[in-house]
Amino acid sequence: MKPGMHVIKWPMERVAGRVSVRIQQLDVDCVCKSFDHVFLHVSVSIQFQANIHQLFQSFYSLSSPTRQLISHTLDVLRSTLPKMSVDDIFASQESIALDLHRSLNGHMNQYGFTIQYALLTRIHPNDHVRQSMNEIEASKRIKESIPHRAEAIKVECVKKAEASAERAYLRGVGIARQRREIARGMVETIKSLNDSYNDTTSTKATMDLLLLTQYLDVLTAVGGSKHVVDKSSSDQGNDDNSPSTSSLLLSHMPQTVFQLQDSISKQFVVASNPVKAILRLVILYVNYAQQRNV
Q: Would the pTM of this model clear 0.85, i.e. be above it?
């Protein structure tokens, strides 16, 4: 009967049962094997209702519509999924659900039921299979990223080499300018002394004075440095616990100046030109100053 008020002729007629025309949902879980021998847990949600125009068939045709739906759903899934690989099953969920809907709807219509939707709500492979699939995808991504990483390392190495070359070039330019200015300053000092004393001061005395001045400047710089330990030749005051990064051994005795004077004098004797002697003195001084700064 249709919904509403009806008159029953009892005892010739009676209420045999009630059929709901609301949409109902049935959840079905199935374990299937794919084409590549992977077992999957598949969950399906089926939404169905009784056909209002076929209520007689809906009530008298089947004693348990849900069991009929479960049996037919399992049959369709277990005949479809083993023909497909795991990747194809994940990629074809919509087509699998559509085929299941058509098959169930064609089978249940004759019993007075209409299938509204058939949805694949969950496809769950084994945990080891999922981890393997993730590792395969991660390996592909790593393989694709290796050329880009190598190119980045190459660019970094090239840039470092260019920066090192530029630094060496600028350092050479700076050292050359430093030596040139030192030589110019010493020449001007000698010329100034000679002009001040009207050439009464000998060149040897002037050079000795410059040598002693530079020597005292070196000792002052070495003694004031925080990273250099100043040690005498007598090994007194030696502290092994001093926090230093480098050591410079210097002989603080008067004969050191005389040895330097003898060396300078020999350079003057060997040189045939005073200018060459001054240049050699400048080179010795610059080399000594560089060793001090190392």
A: no
Q: How far apart are CA 93 and CA 126, in angstroms?
A: 18
pLDDT computed for residue 204 by the predictor = 62
Please confirm whether the linkage preceding 147 is cis (ω < 30° from 0).
Answer: no
Mind listing the pLDDT tens digit for each residue in 75-128?
Answer: 999 989 999 988 888 888 899 999 999 999 988 888 889 999 999 998 888 888
**Strand (E) or helix (H) holding 272:** none
**How far is it, in rounded angstroms, from Cα 46 to Cα 120?**
9
Q: Pick the residue with more confidence: 257 or 294?
A: 257
What is the secondary structure of 68-116 as a DSSP string?
HHHHHHHHHHHHHGGGS-HHHHHHTHHHHHHHHHHHHHHHHGGGTEEEE
Alpha helix stretches (DSSP H) within 197-237: 203-224
Alpha-carbon span 268 to 280, nearest angstrom: 9
Rg of the chain on CA atoms, in Å: 51
Six-digit token pair at 31?
A: 């374990």
Residue type, 18: R
Residue 3: the pLDDT is 65
Cα separation of 178 and 219, whole Å?
20
Q: What does the alpha-carbon distance between residue 271 and residue 258 come to, in Å, rounded to a whole number?
A: 20
